[in-house]
Amino acid sequence: MRKSNLALLISLVALLIVGVSVPAQGQDVANGQAIANVLASLTVVATQPLDFGNVFQGVAKTQDETNDALSGIFTISGASGAGISVFFQLPDYLALASGADRMIIAFSNQDCTFSVLDAAAPSTPSAPGLGALLNQDPRLLAGTTVGAGGVSQIFIGGKVTPAVNQSAGAYTGDIVCTVAYTGT
After folding, report:
1. Which of 15, 77, 124, 146 gives 20 to 30 Å between its CA and that of 87?
2. Distance between CA 143 and CA 120 in Å, rounded?
3. For 5-55, what is each residue's pLDDT tens digit?
4. 99 — alpha (psi -120 to 50), left (phi > 0) or beta?
């Protein structure tokens, strides 16, 4: 090989080595972050049972959700203003503890009120306050949020229909309320 070819080859190899080791001037690196804020846990408490009181055989009795002393009350606590979903499992019957007899219970499409007053001024069934969803269907309770003070309440009524030969005694049934955050 000639000296000029060898010198050219060495120059090219040197250029390749230098070209590979020099960082490109059009690059940069940045570090970002991923963040999240976990909301307060959501709780629901049955604070008052739906109470029909004394019922006569063969005479249906309705309990309105606006009765302060007798309507069923559920209290929800969680993150202020957070969207929630509410699902009720409603009984078809009330039963004697022995299971010997059952009495029909029904819920209309207007037996529920949803209140969003804060904990400092809790609402009552007869005065659910501004922003309350009145005369709601407990099976289709939608568009609900936790109140500004982190508390909301649900008031529920219903109707029992005893048979003409209904057995005497105390009847009970479970009303199950499930709540969950919706992410809104």
Report:
1. 124
2. 23
3. 666 667 666 655 655 555 557 888 999 999 988 877 899 999 999 999 999
4. left
Distance CA 12, CA 19 (A): 10
Contact 175, 90 (CB under 8 A): yes
> Distance between CA atoms of 110 and 32, rounded to whole angstroms?
51
Task: Return the structure tokens found at 169.
Answer: 């005694």
Q: Say how many C-beta atoms besides its own lie within 10 A of residue 31's C-beta.
A: 4
Question: Which residue segments constitute the domains of the chain, with CATH numbers given?
Answer: 46-181 (2.60.40)
pTM equals 0.79
Q: Token match 């004697």: residue?
A: 96
Both tokens assigned to 13 = 């190899």
Q: CA-CA distance, 44 to 74, in Å (whole number)? A: 7
Assigned token pair, 64:
């309105």
